[in-house]
Amino acid sequence: MRKWYAIAVVGLLGVAACEPNTPPSPHGGSTPVTLAPVDPVVATVDGVDLTLSQLQKPLIEGYGLNVLLELVQLDLAQKKAANMHITISQQDVDEETRLTLVQFKKSVRQYTDSGKPTTQTSDDEAMSAEEAQQMLDNALGQEKLTRVDFNIAMRTNAYLRKIVAPTVLQGLTEDNIRLFFNMQYGEKAVVRAIVTRNLVDAQAALNEIRAGRDFGEVATRRTIWAKYARTGGELPPFTRQSQNSEIPSEVVQLTFALKKGQVSDPLQLDNMVWIIKLDDLLPPAHAKFEDYRNDMRTELAVNLTQRAMKLERQALGRAALDGLQIKDPVMDEQYRTIKESQLGKMRDAEQIRRQMDQQRPPATQPTSDPSTTQPWVAPIPAGTEPPATMPASAPATTPATAPATAPAAQ
User: Fold this and answer.
1) CA dihedral 239, 241, 242, 247 (to 10 degrees)
2) Sequence-ordered strand ranges (E) for 236-311
3) How far apart are CA 103 and CA 101, in angstroms?
4) Which of 95, 161, 188, 255 could disulfide-pair with 237, CB 3.0 to 4.6 Å?
5) 175 touches 185 (CB < 8 A)
6) In angstroms, what CA-CA distances link 26 with 29, 32, 123?
7) What does the DSSP 8-state code read for residue 275?
8) What gap in Å lies between CA 49 and CA 63, rounded to an integer?
9) Is 64 exposed, middle or buried (0-12, 13-18, 19+ CB in 10 A)?
10) Which residues have CB under 8 Å from 31's CB, separation 6+?
């Protein structure tokens, strides 16, 4: 577990040691005092002195930069809050701690196969003192943080929560709450698909549809997926959480970004190209919106707040890196190494993006109503990603499942 917080304490000791209190002399001069040693002794082992510099060196090398960046982010959050006339109290920090523990509890909530949670969101609020302490211990152990680390994060996030509050409030519309409910409880999409072997065939099919031909009729003639050619390209209905090896996750994501009746641009995945038409969205079969509306509003508010805070924290991190001038040579070298690594990753990502752009059509957005803004897509259910208060591990990037060859005729 990291012990970098010790550097803050030791740093304060060092400052105190370098600034002795010199009282004025009653005769107008300064009273001579004995100055503290430049490198004070902090401990003695078998007659051997251990000095402050000996302690500081490994602490700075091991944890100094992390501590520095955390403290800079807290300072930037305080300044932004002050500009917005926002203040926080210890009660705000305590509430941030409680909310964070609630989110960790939600992260272990179970869901049914249809995506419906097995417990009500109100159950997550009930936590005994013992359970809260156990939850905190588990969270700190999982994230390799100390309680001091956690307290700094809670104070920073107490500022961030108040900073993003106006933005979150704007997102809590009735339409967004209903859409979030549909995501949670298994709204199903009814779609038709045309699958071709290349972009040329896909574009030819799309041109026919744009010319007014029926999507189903074009799908029957042009799709290589014989199993669904007989149904005019209609696929079995699926939800956002459906586990279907026939339908890649990219197709699922594209489907739920469409409006009813819209047709997508070609989407190339491996050696197949997909064109999707969203025919309908079926509401959840076993849950009524009215019964869960209040819970969904609370859940959505939490979700939007987490995401907004995460964006603010990322912005603070960038600002800290961009404006930071480190005087300590050890931390400066660490900083330069990290920054160069990040720039290298950005360059690699840009190169990959350009290569992918050369191999795919220019857009995968719906072709109908091109001037219409895409519908707001509710975030994933709260609890399925780490809370914004903690550093999240890099998610695994598993490629979407898609047949390597054209689906066999059935």
Assistant:
1) 90
2) 267-269, 272-282
3) 5
4) 188
5) no
6) 7, 12, 69
7) E
8) 24
9) buried
10) 22, 23, 24, 25
Q: What phi and psi, each to the nearest 5 degrees, are found at residue 49? A: -80, 135
Q: Which amino acid is at 126?
A: A
Structure-token match 């609890």, residue found: 383
User: Average pLDDT for residues 320-331, to the nearest whole number?
Assistant: 82
B/e letters for 350-371, b = 16+ CB within 10 Å, e = fewer, are eeeeeeeeeebeeebebbeeee
Q: At what angle do helices 65-83 and 289-323 cross, to 10 degrees?
A: 110
- List Cα–Cα distances, 404 to 197, 246, 248, 250, 268, in angstroms: 11, 11, 12, 15, 13
Structure tokens at 200: 């040329």
* Average pLDDT estimate for 78-99: 94
Residue 153, amino acid: A
pLDDT tens track for 5-34 = 333 333 333 333 344 444 554 555 555 556
What pTM, to 2 d.p., does this model score? 0.54
Measured torsion, CA atoms of residues 403, 407, 408, 410, in degrees rounded to the nearest 10? 130
Q: Give the C-alpha distances (Å, rounded to integers) separating 3 from 276, 306, 316.
A: 53, 27, 23
pLDDT tops 50 at residue 409: no
How does residue 66 score in pLDDT terms, banded at 50, 70 and 90? confident
Strands 48-51 and 267-269: unpaired
- Residue closest to 4 by CA, chosen among 74, 69, 68, 59: 59
- Give the Cα separation of 402 and 78 in Å (integer): 48
Instruction: Residue 148: name the closest of 82, 91, 74 by CA.
Output: 74
Query: What pLDDT is recorded for position 211?
Result: 94
Q: Count the neighbouring beta carbons within 10 Å of the beta carbon of residue 90.
A: 9
Domains and CATH numbers, the chain: 188-282 (3.10.50.40)
* Alpha carbons 82 and 78: distance in angstroms, whole number: 6
Q: What is the mean pLDDT of the chain?
A: 75
Centroid of chain to Cα 301: 15
